[in-house]
């Protein structure tokens, strides 16, 4: 059943979950939500950029020429062992800190 204003007649008989006067759609609320989402995305992108710059600065601060490897796979003890440039490492060691550049000198052999 339709009323003269085009609304369904049953709506008038059911209790409204909203108080009177709040059945109007507020478009500014949708604009505020969209603006909020765009602002948060902008701030997140800016923070990611700054984080990348900070990580790059930290990488430049690392000491050059030394690393620490964890030999738990070899000896069973989780102890970091310091290694210098040109030092030998065994396959199965885990890089603890620093950057490794490896060259396989005896692949497939048991030491």
Q: How helical, in percent, are the residues?
A: 25-40%
Give the N-terminus to C-terminus distance in angstroms: 90 Å
Strand content: 5-15%
Low-confidence stretches: none
Strand-and-helix sequence, N→C? HEHEE
Mean pLDDT: 77
Q: Number of helical runs?
A: 2
Outline the secondary-structure elements:
Blueprint: H1 27-61, E1 66-70, H2 72-75, E2 80-84, E3 94-97
Antiparallel strand pairs: 1-2, 1-3
Overall description:
This protein is of the alpha+beta class and 111 residues long. It folds into two domains: 9-61; 64-111, no CATH class. Helix content is 35%, strand content 13%. It has helices at 27-61, 72-75; strands at 66-70, 80-84, 94-97. Strands 2-1-3 form a three-stranded antiparallel beta sheet, with no helix packed on it. It is elongated and about 80 Å long.
Features:
three-stranded antiparallel beta sheet, alpha+beta, 3 strands, 13% strand, 111 residues, 2 helices
Q: Summarize this, please?
A:
The chain folds into two domains: 9-61; 64-111, no CATH class. Helices cover 35% and strands 13% of the residues.
